[in-house]
Amino acid sequence: MTKKNPDDSVREEQFGATENAAGTEDTIHTENELETGSPEDDTVSVVDKDKVTEDKDNELVEDGDVTAGLNEDVSDDDSGLPPVDYSGYSKHDLIETLVLIIDNRPPAEIRNDVERIKVLLFKKFKLEAEEAKKKFLDEGGKIEEYRAWVDPDDARVKYLLEKYRDKKTDYNKIQEAEKYDNLKKKYEIIDKIKDLVNREESINKTFHDFRLLQNEWHSVGAVPQNSLKDIWENYHHSVEVFYDYIKINKELRDLDLKKNLELKVQLCEKAEELLLEPSAINAFRSLQDFHNQWREIGPVPQESKNDIWERFKEATAQINKRHHEYFEKQKDDQRKNFEAKIAICEEVEAINLLEIKNFKDFDEKADKVVQLQKMWRSVGFAPKKQNNKVYQRFREACDAFFEKKRGFYADNKGIQINNLQLKTELCLQAEALQDSTDWKATSDALIKLQKEWKEIGPVPRKQSERTWKRFRNACDHFFNKKAEFFSGLDTSYEDNLKAKVAIIEELEKFDSGSDVHVAFERLKDLQKKWTDIGFVPFNMKDEISTRYRNAINKEFDKLKIGDSDKSILKYKTKLDSLKTNPKASRKVHNERDKFVTKIKQLEGDVVLWENNIGFFAKSKNADAMIREVNDKIESAKQMIKTLEEKVRIIDQSGLDD
After folding, report:
1. Domain end: 249, 273, 304, which one?
2. How far apart are CA 468 and CA 8, in angstroms?
3. For the whole model, what pTM was predicted?
């Protein structure tokens, strides 16, 4: 049954939300690979004056060399709270939540929340647009006339996202100002550490003040990246000078170095665990934090310095390699996507170069373009620099085709009017058949009308939907009645199956007894009962017919009756089993024609043989030849009688109608 208007031209005006050309490539240039240069130990504990040279060896190379390109702070949400699941929120709830978090929380804390809400909102906008489009088509609209539906909340969401970006920009400016303020504070701390060596007070008091300055140093936040190397070099130099000044106890220094070693071993273990992290991006970001922590930890014993650094550097190198390979693979995938999109563009452009002269070809090419649009959506992002350009190229090629199609339809209104007349005639024929109860013949006729409908071509737009609905309603009216009728037969078919199974079981247990004629009549009675029962479920038809035919033929073969009677009875059984076959009519008709032809041939042979008997009388072996011919004549007459009986059975069965 036809459910879709074949006149409808298909064009997907919307490709979903405008493609984000950036893809996931943005992170490539915002996070530099960790360098595996030289180690650096920062916070130096109190040291004995005799060990100044050793302290200098223990001081690791400046941290900026270790993690060149790393930002001191990570913009991820550090709140420590589990992420909120927004998937069950309605569109209204998502928008109100977006308003609430943008107005009340710092941009750095809500980046992930904003991103997830944005994705869910765009999915809902896209779904509503697709539903609006489907509704438009279901109501009879043509795809090429459809204009993209814009959600009223779309503008508000864009405003909120713009507001968030502005707040984020302002926040970053504030953060940058704070970094410069932190830089100033750290230089002030360095000056205070330098001043400690000029005091004339107890060493305990001086060392206590030094520890306070160290704690203050670590409590100050991030500084500008370009000042990182210089500030750490100044700090380490001042600390080294101070250690040289205070002549700290060697045992205390060794204890401090041992503690630092334990902390760095823990960092190595954490870095090595990152090798098992499924996400290369997450592993890389965590490693940034570990390098920051490494820089904050002071020196380690001289004999362990190189080993611990090599261990940490090895883990860093492997994570950097994974990070690099991840983005290289992404670039390769985007390059392949770009090539696939170029091929799709060229295919649509090739269609635009064709000279299309009829409605059918336009409809076929429109279907092809729609398939290419679906294929386009299945291909991922192209590289950022080419993504928008190739998308614009594809969009322009599709627009050019559908504009060409609209122009052709507008220029051929005369053909459309003639098509309207032809389809109106098909509507009249369908309406004349809609109340018929000849299910098979009417089904075939309506299916034929539907095929003719598809071949006619489009009609004027104003009459298209009304004419289509009229035709479809007539078809639906008949097929709904047919479905109701056959749904009521399901129960009766099951009952018929049970009845026929009972007859088969009776045949399989049949006892012919001593009276052949009584047994013969009983079998004929079972044949009649089988014929009167009716249809069984289609999936059981062949199995049940074969089982019945084998059972009754077996019993006929047991009876001592003539071959002619057996042949007729078996043929009647065969016809009974053919009644459930929808193609039986033609087969039986052909068989009847063969029987009639054979009867005429035999009758001609009988006449010829009877005439020849007169000639045989003059022959020396006349008696033997006459007996042989008479046997042939008798056999032919018996065959004629059998064939005539089969023709009569066919005529009575109704299968030849």
Report:
1. 249
2. 10
3. 0.34
